[in-house]
TrEMBL record:
Residue intervals of the SnoaL-like domain: 22-108
Gene Ontology molecular function, alphabetical: isomerase activity
Listed InterPro entries: NTF2-like_dom_sf, SnoaL-like
Keyword Isomerase carried by entry: yes
Name this protein carries in UniProt: Ketosteroid isomerase-related protein
Keywords, alphabetical: Isomerase
TM stretches of this protein: none
Lipid metabolism in keyword set: no
UniProt superkingdom: Bacteria
Organism: Ohtaekwangia koreensis
UniProt-listed Pfam families: SnoaL_2
Length: 125
């Protein structure tokens, strides 16, 4: 139960800051592993700073985000995030992203995302 409470607290802190686009970085492990954005490449991007840079770019595309659902099982969690995207081509889209997390040593250790990458990338052009 202790792992579950820690996982929940980390995710609540992360998503609060993430939605505000500030103060979420402290929840991330230094050797964080991220898979997402290109589901044809499942090799993780490793490192907190690499993930921070990815999120700097991604944050330019969403206007708002909300957690629709959070399921926690010890040091693992699955979150459905709902995003209001605005793209450079003027297109606005609301979409869900499946976000699967692991926690280790008191930090968020890894994240794997699943979402409609084709629509996302098409609208970046």
């Amino acid at each position: 139960m202790e792992n579950q409470a820690l996982t929940k607290q980390l995710l609540e802190n992360y998503y609060k800051g993430f939605a505000e686009k500030a103060n979420w970085e402290d929840t991330i492990a230094d050797d964080f592993q991220y898979v997402g954005g290109d589901m044809t490449n499942t090799q993780p991007v490793v490192g907190k700073q690499a993930y921070v840079e990815i999120i700097k770019r991604f944050s330019q595309r969403f206007q708002a985000m909300r957690v629709k659902q959070m399921i926690i099982d010890g040091d693992k969690a699955s979150v459905i995030g709902n995003y209001d995207f605005q793209f450079p081509n003027g297109q606005r889209i609301n979409g869900n992203v499946s976000e699967n997390w692991t926690v280790k040593n008191g930090k968020l250790q890894s994240l794997t995302l699943y979402f409609d990458t084709l629509t996302f990338m098409t609208n970046l052009k």
